[in-house]
């Protein structure tokens, strides 16, 4: 019989347990930045739960109070799920992790749990597993993003902003990379864009979003963690290859 265990990462055990993404390159700047970011965010209520199968990492979920979330969604007294990943499907592990968040939300008197999904990229979860757990889809946003909520109490619904097009016009046609430290793959994504821009003789400006207020104001998508804008158009909100980034930017020249 498989032994299943849920382990909560803390500042004390993160060195021994590690985090899931980019774990094969733990000396990389992206992994180290993610680890430092997690340690800081633990103090803000963020939870990072690992699911272990027979002492081997089989999945994880990351969630945090909405006031500290890196997703561009408005609301009060909700948890927001950032990431959900399992590397063994068909065993109900994703459901088990979601149930953990819901129970934690109830224990902390939250009004519900929010998740931003997108069927077109692996950088966000897909909505099907959440719908099976009685999440409700509230609205959508450009580029395939969807807002889902699990309501615990009668409370105001969370919502997306409605100024996505205006956000693309804030950078004077420059190639602008907006980033945070929440995802360890962002450094790789940025390196690819910088290399592509160099080949096209385009100067890139990197803007590190330091606060939730800044993220809510500037992010071009609900994803919030990463965005690339050029000529008032969205180039990417997830990692592209150098070739794909060049092709995308050429469309706007």
From TrEMBL:
<dbReference type="GO" id="GO:0016747">
    <property type="term" value="F:acyltransferase activity, transferring groups other than amino-acyl groups"/>
</dbReference>
<feature type="domain" description="N-acetyltransferase">
    <location>
        <begin position="4"/>
        <end position="171"/>
    </location>
</feature>
<dbReference type="InterPro" id="IPR000182">
    <property type="entry name" value="GNAT_dom"/>
</dbReference>
<dbReference type="Pfam" id="PF00583">
    <property type="entry name" value="Acetyltransf_1"/>
</dbReference>
<protein>
    <submittedName>
        <fullName>GCN5 family acetyltransferase</fullName>
    </submittedName>
</protein>
<dbReference type="InterPro" id="IPR016181">
    <property type="entry name" value="Acyl_CoA_acyltransferase"/>
</dbReference>
<keyword id="KW-0808">Transferase</keyword>
């Amino acid at each position: 019989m498989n032994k299943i265990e849920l382990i909560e990462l803390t500042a004390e055990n993160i060195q021994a347990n590690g985090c899931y993404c980019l774990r094969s390159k733990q000396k990389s700047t992206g992994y180290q930045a993610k680890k430092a970011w997690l340690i800081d965010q633990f103090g803000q209520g963020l939870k990072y739960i690992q699911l272990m199968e027979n002492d081997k990492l089989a999945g994880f979920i990351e969630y945090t109070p909405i006031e500290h979330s890196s997703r561009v969604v408005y609301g009060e007294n909700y948890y927001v799920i950032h990431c959900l990943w399992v590397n063994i499907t068909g065993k109900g592990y994703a459901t088990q992790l979601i149930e953990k968040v819901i129970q934690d939300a109830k224990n902390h008197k939250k009004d519900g749990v929010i998740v931003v999904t997108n069927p077109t990229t692996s950088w966000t979860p897909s909505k099907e597993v959440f719908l099976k757990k009685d999440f409700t889809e509230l609205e959508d946003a450009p580029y395939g993003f969807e807002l889902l909520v699990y309501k615990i109490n009668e409370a105001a619904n969370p919502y997306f902003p409605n100024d996505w097009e205006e956000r693309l016009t804030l950078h004077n046609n420059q190639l602008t990379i907006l980033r945070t430290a929440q995802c360890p793959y962002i450094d790789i994504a940025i390196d690819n864009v910088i290399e592509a821009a160099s080949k096209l003789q385009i100067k890139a400006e990197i803007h590190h979003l330091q606060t939730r207020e800044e993220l809510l104001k500037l992010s071009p998508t609900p994803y919030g963690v990463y965005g690339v804008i050029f000529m008032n158009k969205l180039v990417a909100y997830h990692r592209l290859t150098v070739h794909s980034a060049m092709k995308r930017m050429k469309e706007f020249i």
